[in-house]
């Protein structure tokens, strides 16, 4: 792909033009219960069903960004009915849809691996990381097709015959479908994550290669990296745990052209945030002037901030009601029972209260790297709901009376918690007011309807779009529902399954 062409994201809701995804690969079919905790899963997944669900998502993205390729996959599917996973969805197959707007990490990697020097470098880096033997390294080097090699580096399996047979060389990357978590476009820069757990570290390594050698080949200065301080290795184990520098993309939202949100969570540490703020403010060209940091409890149910809220439209948000200070002030009993629940399955202090700090970039002349930036607690921002209102009003010029918050599960226990768990708050905007969610979150869907949104099933809509009965431009104020029985088990929604590279500016 052309290096550094058309990479720009300045909001969460501008019309989506280009993104990186990763279709569920065979590694997901290898998860065993003994590995749930380490591999960040809560269940085994029925892979072929998950793929059927995911393919609706891919089709939808193609309809909105690359209609020719949408037509191609729809025709292909029709001509091959009965195929479990049609070849047009496989990045290593000749029939792959190969779009320039819906890019798969696996396809991007295989293109890079056509270069001998990069092939050598990537294999050494991955094998070094995984502690593999030289025999494994040589086996990988000897692979003919770069498509097979890319797949092996992701799934951890050197295929022999069908997908289910082959040699295991390292652990799979079952969370690679959540491409949001590995990197975030910040205006025309890319912020690379530093994963919190070993299960996701190889993902970061692969993404770094894609960013360095494909997306930003000619502009390495546009990459923002989060690293451990140089004296980290000197610290005791205890100090290292305290000062771990991790930041995952699910905690970062490019909310308005000069405003970035960063969550402090189970996955993103204060040291990671500190590093991000300094690196972003030190670079005069990122365009970021304020960074709001949101501290949420360190809890599996809400590993990133995008599991508790996302933006739907300039004036509309979906939020987990337990984090609305407005509701919690009214409902002290509910707050108490919620805190108790959060604490009961966690030994360490989780810290329930949401805290928000705003960091303001000082004028460039007075900026001394790593020394000064202004921190403020805005008195009118007392929690998440007032932050979201503040963004609609001040960043998007919405009339204060017009801001609306949709609460997951219609803010009624137990649906609020159940639907937050299955990513009712984790929506991807295809454009201002058109978002993608999961069909299982019925109470949340009901609230969308009450608020005046249309609701459409992805499969039906894809058919209508395919037949030209409706055009993407004609779709407004709509929640599009993906089938989600299996997809939701991986514990992420459409927001985390997307890494936007290009969105149009809002009018
Ligand atoms: N941005 C997100 N909410 N990502 C969800 C990631 C889910 C994944 N199983 C994990 O625990 O890492």
From TrEMBL:
Protein's pathway: Amino-acid degradation; L-arginine degradation via ADI pathway; carbamoyl phosphate from L-arginine: step 1/2
Gene Ontology biological-process annotations: L-arginine deiminase pathway
Pfam family, one: ADI
Catalysed reaction, written as an equation: L-arginine + H2O = L-citrulline + NH4(+)
EC number annotated for this UniProt entry: 3.5.3.6
A GO term, aspect molecular function: arginine deiminase activity
Superkingdom of the organism of origin: Bacteria
Coiled-coil annotated spans: none
Enzyme class: hydrolase
PANTHER family given in the database record: ARGININE DEIMINASE
Protein name: arginine deiminase
Protein's organism: Arachidicoccus rhizosphaerae
């Amino acid at each position: 792909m052309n290096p550094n062409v058309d990479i720009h994201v300045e909001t969460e809701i501008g019309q989506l033009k280009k993104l990186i995804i990763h279709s569920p690969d065979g590694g997901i079919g290898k998860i065993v219960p003994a590995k749930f905790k380490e591999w960040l899963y809560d269940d085994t997944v029925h892979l072929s069903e998950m793929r059927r669900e995911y393919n609706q998502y891919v089709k939808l993205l193609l309809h909105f960004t690359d209609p020719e390729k949408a037509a191609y996959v729809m025709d292909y599917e029709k001509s091959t009915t009965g195929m479990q996973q049609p070849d047009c969805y496989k990045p290593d197959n000749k029939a792959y849809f190969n779009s320039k707007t819906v890019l798969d990490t696996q396809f991007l990697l295989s293109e890079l691996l056509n270069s001998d020097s990069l092939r050598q470098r990537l294999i050494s880096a991955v094998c070094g990381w995984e502690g593999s033997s030289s025999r494994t390294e040589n086996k990988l080097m000897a692979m003919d097709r770069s498509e097979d090699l890319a797949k092996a580096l992701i799934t951890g399996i050197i295929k022999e015959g069908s997908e289910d047979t082959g040699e295991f060389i390292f652990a799979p990357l079952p969370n690679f479908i959540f491409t949001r978590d590995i990197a975030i476009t910040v205006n025309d820069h890319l912020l690379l994550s530093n994963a919190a757990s070993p299960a996701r570290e190889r993902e970061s390594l692969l993404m770094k290669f894609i960013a360095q050698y494909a997306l930003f080949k000619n502009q390495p200065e546009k990459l923002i990296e989060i690293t451990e301080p140089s004296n980290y290795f000197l610290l005791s184990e205890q100090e290292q745990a305290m000062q771990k520098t991790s930041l995952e993309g699910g905690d970062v939202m490019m909310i308005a052209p000069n405003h970035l949100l960063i969550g402090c969570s189970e996955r993103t540490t204060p040291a990671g945030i500190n590093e991000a703020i300094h690196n972003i403010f030190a670079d005069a060209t990122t365009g970021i002037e304020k960074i709001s940091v949101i501290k949420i409890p360190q809890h599996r149910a809400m590993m990133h901030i995008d599991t508790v809220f996302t933006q739907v439209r300039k004036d509309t948000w979906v939020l987990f009601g337990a984090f609305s200070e407005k509701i919690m002030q009214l409902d002290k009993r509910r707050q108490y029972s919620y805190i108790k629940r959060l604490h009961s399955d966690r030994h360490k202090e989780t810290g329930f209260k949401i805290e928000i700090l705003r960091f303001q970039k000082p004028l460039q002349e007075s900026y001394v790297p790593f020394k000064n930036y202004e921190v403020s607690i805005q008195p009118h921002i007392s929690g998440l709901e007032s932050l979201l209102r503040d963004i609609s009003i001040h960043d998007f010029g919405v009339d204060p009376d017009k801001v609306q918050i949709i609460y997951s599960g219609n803010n009624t226990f137990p649906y609020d918690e159940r639907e937050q768990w299955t990513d009712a708050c984790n929506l991807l905007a295809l454009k201002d007011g058109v978002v993608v969610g999961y069909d299982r979150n019925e109470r949340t869907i009901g609230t969308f309807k009450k608020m005046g949104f249309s609701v459409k099933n992805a499969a039906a809509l894809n058919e209508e779009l395919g037949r030209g009965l409706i055009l993407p431009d004609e779709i407004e104020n709509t929640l599009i529902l993906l089938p989600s029985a299996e997809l939701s088990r991986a514990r992420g929604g459409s927001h985390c399954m997307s890494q936007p590279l290009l969105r149009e500016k809002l009018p």
